[in-house]
TrEMBL record:
GO terms for molecular function: methyltransferase activity. It comes from Streptomyces atrovirens. InterPro entries: SAM-dependent_MTases_sf, SAM_dep_MeTrfase_SAV2177_type. The lineage of its organism: Bacteria, Bacillati, Actinomycetota, Actinomycetes, Kitasatosporales. The keyword Transferase applies. The keyword Glycosyltransferase does not apply. Keywords: Methyltransferase, Transferase. It comes from the Bacteria. Gene3D superfamilies: Vaccinia Virus protein VP39. This is SAM-dependent methyltransferase.
Length: 273
């Protein structure tokens, strides 16, 4: 939480009867902050596609590299929506490793993330780390709360990592990104990763989608063209829209077990001009 915020929160109500993407991602990464329902669906997915845990790590490694890159461009403010359960190094640790005074706001809608945000998200004395409990589609509430920590008149790096494939077109995926882009000042960056069917056989992608939907979760693995729509009006930086493992690999270390595994995700970083 914000190191200057000593407020208390009522105990969150955690729904353990339905899988949640944040807890499943934690399970894929080898974490312990998940429930049997999350592990059950995770095991089904890994049983069909054994590379998924490595793919999750490749996605997270992209987040690390993109955070280093945007901090290297002089950005000192970060808004991470769909943050998931903290897994070190977290985004604020990467950003504040480049600039100790970086200010970071995390956002997620799973109450279990709030529990761990309070306990684990501690930044440098010079910087600030805060957390917003909200659904990604409630962009007005997110921006309003984030303004308590971030100055939206200055550049912000907005991270939407492995989030939008859980929000369908009919639920306003493109509209929510547009609203967030509108809140950013020129010089800000949009950082995104997104699962795609483009690198795998159609039947394999359909099977993964069907497994998620059987678990009560939306899964929309968008094509390259559909992914590119999120960046309309922005200037995509080099190397453009690429697979997660192809985005500035020199800024990080290879993920163990990565050789021979495709991330299955498109990524890009784009600047608002």
């Amino acid at each position: 939480m914000d190191q200057q915020d000593s407020g208390t929160h009522a105990p969150p109500r955690i729904d353990t009867g339905k899988p949640h993407p944040a807890r499943m991602y934690d399970w894929f990464l080898g974490g312990k902050d998940n429930y049997p329902v999350d592990e059950a669906l995770g095991r089904q997915l890994v049983g069909f596609a054994p590379g998924i845990p490595v793919m999750a790590r490749m996605n997270r490694a992209f987040m690390h590299r993109a955070t280093r890159w945007t901090a290297g461009q002089g950005v000192r403010q970060f808004l991470d929506i769909g943050t998931g359960i903290p897994t070190e190094p977290n985004l604020h640790q990467v950003a504040q490793g480049i600039a100790a005074d970086a200010r970071v706001v995390y956002c997620d809608n799973d109450p279990i993330v709030l529990v761990h945000a309070e306990a684990l998200l501690r930044g440098t004395p010079e910087g600030v780390v805060d957390y917003v409990q909200a659904d990604a589609r409630d962009t007005a509430a997110i921006v309003e709360r984030a303004r308590e920590t971030l100055d939206f008149e200055r550049p912000v790096a907005l991270s939407l990592i492995a989030l939008l494939h859980f929000i369908g077109d009919e639920d306003g995926a493109y509209e929510l990104v547009e609203r967030l882009k509108d809140a950013l000042t020129p010089g800000s960056y949009l950082v995104m990763s997104h699962l795609t069917p483009d690198f795998h056989p159609e039947e394999a992608s359909k099977k993964v989608t069907d497994l998620y939907r059987a678990g009560g979760l939306t899964m929309d693995m968008r094509s390259r063209d559909r992914f590119a729509r999120f960046f309309e009006g922005l200037e995509i930086v080099a190397p453009g829209i690429v697979a997660a493992e192809e985005w500035h690999p020199e800024l990080g270390e290879p993920v163990p077990g990565q050789e021979g595994v495709h991330s299955g995700a498109y990524v890009a970083v784009a600047r608002k001009v």
